[in-house]
Write a structure and sequence with these properties.
Blueprint lengths: L37 E9 L7 E9 L34 E9 L5 E7 L34 E2 L5 E2 L5 E7 L23 E7 L6 E6 L15 E9 L2 E8 L29 E8 L7 E2 L5 H6 L6 E2 L7 E4 L11 E6 L4 E4 L7
Parallel strand pairs: 13-15
Antiparallel strand pairs: 1-2, 2-3, 3-4, 5-7, 6-7, 7-8, 8-9, 10-11, 11-12, 14-17, 15-16, 16-17
Length: about 350
Amino acid sequence: MDDRGELKWWSRCYAEWIDRDSSGVLGDADAKTSSPDQYIDDLAVDYVSPPGGALVVAARCHGNNVINYWSGDDIGYAENSGTAFQNRFSGTNGNIHVAWIGVFSLDREELRYATYLAELNAGQNPGGSYDDPLLAGWYSLNSGWPDLNTTKVTPNSMAIDDAGNICVIASGRQTITTTNAFQQMVKPGDGAGCWNAFVRVYRPDLALPLYSSLVVGDWDKSSGAGGGNTVLNGLVSAANGILALGYQAADSAGTPAGNPVPVTGVPSWGAPAPQNESAVLAKLAFARPAQVTDGPTMDRRSLYRAGLRPQWLPAVDICGRIVRSGRDGAGASGVRVVIVKTGRRLVMSGAGWKAP
């Protein structure tokens, strides 16, 4: 809605019916109206990604007998690379809930990027592997047709950091973790996994995670016992990482459930082991890559309206970002503005401007 409460756009995030015979008319050969088994779990506004920011939606669907959310490799947005970390719902498991994340333009109904967030069922081996070193050894969710298991984003937990990366907490089974994770999942065939709470940070285009780590009891890798005992309630994007808050559960007698969560660097006011139901505070450190992305073409006037100035800017945690401008209406020469992160502050420089 706009500032007066008037509707600007809306989206159901999935197709109401599929025109299988390309007739343009809903008929017997077409997939009919999807049953109402889709849900929205969270919304977050991205104020930094060009052009004009974005609305990030965390949603969820139940079962594989409905028309599910848009596939990550079937989006017409010009900047979309044509694939997502997890393109679609797969496998034959029906009575499960799986999550989905979509990135929409703020000012119009335009889906830019999308990925499913649905972890593997225990022991699944879809085949192909990822090329990215952060995902070394993990089978690709876009290979084969692997069975998935229930994966849910924690409602009201999603955050967007100052570089436009999408941070979520969720729960899953055979959760894919990155090589820089605090706590990793065993890969299929290497041992037994467990139900777990996890933190994941996606790139703004949802093509790859920058970080994915479990926060769960240190379970028995031969049987899976001792895990499935934590809940994460919220997160905050922090310098060089994520702060996540939750708890380790206890039974009715007050005995902590499962095995303790592995800890390190426990402060003087903390405890290395749970007592009854106990809060868990995790600072998950990782280095955000120094990515540089091209923004939209902007004239000089638009650059200033966007708040870009040839001056020192307050220190914030953001990756480098390039904005190119063309010629403005008066025919003035365009400038190429570069924002780079230094040790203390952000410096912006461009043609004809002297960097401080």
